[in-house]
Amino acid sequence: MRRQQQSPAGRSATPEAGPAWLHRSIAPKLRLAAKESRTFFEAELGRSGATFATWTMLATLKREGPMIQRALAQYLSIEGPTLSRHLETMERRGLVVRTRNGTDRRAATVALTADGENMYAEIETVALASQQRMLAGFSDEEVEQLGKLLDQILRNVTSD
């Protein structure tokens, strides 16, 4: 007779179940949902001439206002050199302006320009429509609960 084992979620699992738990595992589902959602969203943004990076920077600056470049990188959870490359492209397009206070490039304050504000307004409708499609079939309460559940997962995996 085989002994039952407790799974991390507290449900019993028999040793012969093998990878059956994987079918119910949240991590692969989260990865796939994130990957497919981002691919979908990037394709929608691309039709408007934007990238995911452009959108997240425009949206962050719109919401938070001008920010020091280092704080923007931290807010977006990206490395400084990656942010610098994106900002250079956005500056050339006239979407943002960097104001430097001294010789340290990382100390530059980044702000939206009028063209950046206009692009934000144009692609905000794309972002909202994309979100509606991704969340089709969910009630407002379910969307709120999903957000809370994802926040809890983030807290669980980022706390020490």
Structure description:
It contains 7 helices and 5 strands. It has 160 residues and is mostly helical. It has a 3-stranded antiparallel beta sheet. Strands 1-2 form a two-stranded antiparallel sheet. Strand 1 and strand 2 (12-13) form a beta hairpin. Helix 2 (26-46) packs across helix 6 (114-134) and helix 3 packs across helix 6. It is globular.
N/C terminus separation? 40 Å
- Nearest-integer average pLDDT: 86
Q: Would you count the extended β strands for me?
A: 5
**What is the H/E string?**
EEHHHEHHEEHH
**Helical amount:** 55-70%
Give a topology summary:
Blueprint: E1 5-6, E2 12-13, H1 20-24, H2 26-46, H3 52-64, E3 67-68, H4 69-76, H5 80-92, E4 96-99, E5 109-112, H6 114-134, H7 140-158
Antiparallel strand pairs: 1-2, 3-5, 4-5
Keywords for this structure?
single chain; 160 residues; mainly alpha; 3-stranded antiparallel beta sheet
Give a nutshell description of this structure:
The protein is mostly helical.
